[in-house]
Amino acid sequence: MSESRHALIIANDTYEDQGLKQLRAPGHDADALSGVLRNPQIGDFEVDVLRNASGQAMRKRIEGFFKDRRRNDTLVLHFSCHGIKNESGELYFAAADTEHRLLEATGVSADFVHRCMSRTLAGRTALFLDCCYGGAFSKGASMKASHDMNVLDHFAGENPSGGRGWAVITASNSMEFAFEGDELTEGSTALPSVFTHAVVEGLESGDADLDHDGEIHLDELYDYIHEHVQDRNPNQTPSKTVQMQGRMQVAHSRHHTIVLEPTPIPSRVQDALRRRDEFARRGAVRDLHMRMRSENLSIAEGARQALEAVVREDTGQVADEALSALQDARLKPSPARLDFGRVPQGAGVPQQSVTLQGIPLARHCVAQATGKWLQVEESADGLTVGVDTSAEGRLAGDIMLNGVADDAVVRVEAEVVPPPPEKPPDEKPTGREGKEPGLTHRPESRLLLAPALAAAALALGVTSVITWIVAVVATVYAEEGLRVGPEETFATSAHHHGVITALITALITSTAALVLGAFARRDLSARRKRYTPGAKSATRSMASAARRCAMPVFVLTVLMSIAYNIVTQHL
């Protein structure tokens, strides 16, 4: 069962309530968040945005969002709106038609959202609350939690069963405004939100990938948000609660970072680089160049960083030689463009190779495909690139290579076309070898070549055994003929009984069996992907049996021929 990723963004910045209109308008970054989450290189979510909806529409969309999910699903729900707490301490999210005096009827309660999260079958759920919180109290009533909303308390509960789980991250727990009747209290100032901006920036830049493993997990994203928000606004403290087993992967890191711990260069090289003598510094550069070519990547990285320092700090020919040496650390993919041409839909996964050239440090990189249809795997010499042919259409994408010294891009193009129609058995093929121009077909005429050669080799091998036995029997009769008619020579008797003919036939058939068996094995090795496992097994078995038959016959026939020549000279 494949993973499915869904996100719902609720952004309200227009309110009918006159009091809410006086507050800041959250949700300005909702469009940016939608783009980042939808981007297949980053979030790869199916994103739905609900903007300035009524309370009824919000409740309907939220309940539908959590329904009919599966264990492998990942859900993200993001609120960008006002959060209001009533006199009983209950939290409500403000819709476009919310009235702060009638929260239960017109708002969306946090308890409702919590119940929907608790009932979903999705394996991972994250709730982001970028809300400006306040309280709605009757005039003269005491304000509960006037400085602390305790938002996360509304989502507390027992850990979900069955491996499911959720996390809640809120922009702040602080009360930023309060109503007394229909009026805002004095001193209720709301600071601009930086929460959603931090989420977008961390995902889009890849800076939230704190452990540099190519994936951004929820705990990493929260740590990034917390630091970013605190830097911008020390009075705003994001909070989180997690009721989840394991880690939740939120996004891919768009810019992978390779982290190598450099080995310090030897002190003698450091001393040479500090000398006034230009020849000594040039010699140190050559030493660093050699160290950069090391199989030990830490040693190579230390030398590379030292060469970069020489380029920055030295001048003239020394800096030029260091800059020239650094070219060896650059990524050199070959080819830089792969064109699969026209490929029939459903024809498997065609593959091509990309070779990473250069020193070990230059080959050390991270590859990331920009499309789901691109499949990239590491190989001994570089990368193996495959194309998913399940969907028809023209495909174009890139493989981003992030190396230690620089980045490179390999362009990949293909066109998946409809498969050719099946031809009736009596229809003659059109075109050369029955191929439609421009399409790549598997040559059916060659599919049985190796098994056919192996079968012919086995038949000849068996024939060689039979003819060799005939030659032996004929030799015995020829020897008995000498006893009956002593006046005959052995050559005459052997010719009379067909010894020579049998020997020649055995030699020819055994040689042909060995040659055809060798061709069968060669074709099987050269075209492994064109044969089914059954055809491969049958070919190997028949070729091996043919060799076991023909090789002894070939050797014995040669020996008998030599013996025949010797005997005929003396008898």
In short:
The chain has 571 residues and is of the alpha/beta class. The chain is built from 16 helices and 20 strands.
Give the terminus-to-terminus CA distance: 84 Å
Find the structural class using helix and strand composition.
alpha/beta
Helix proportion of residues, in percent? 40-55%
Give the total of beta strands. Answer: 20
Q: What characterizes the major β-sheet? A: 10 strands, mixed
- Count every helix, treating DSSP H or I runs of 4 or more residues as helices: 16
Strand residues, percent: 15-25%
Tell me what the structure shows:
With 571 residues, the protein is an alpha/beta fold. It is 40% helix and 22% strand. The protein is built from 16 helices and 20 strands. It is elongated. It starts with a strand and ends with a helix.
Task: List its traits.
571 residues; 40% helix; ten-stranded mixed beta sheet; four-stranded antiparallel beta sheet; alpha/beta
Walk me through the topology.
Elements: E1 4-11, H1 18-21, H2 30-38, E2 46-51, H3 55-66, E3 73-85, E4 91-93, H4 103-106, E5 108-109, H5 110-119, E6 124-137, E7 165-170, E8 175-180, E9 183-184, H6 195-205, E10 215-217, H7 218-232, E11 239-243, E12 249-252, H8 267-274, H9 278-292, H10 297-313, H11 316-326, E13 332-334, E14 337-344, E15 351-357, H12 360-363, E16 365-369, E17 374-378, E18 382-387, E19 393-403, E20 407-417, H13 449-484, H14 490-496, H15 499-526, H16 533-570
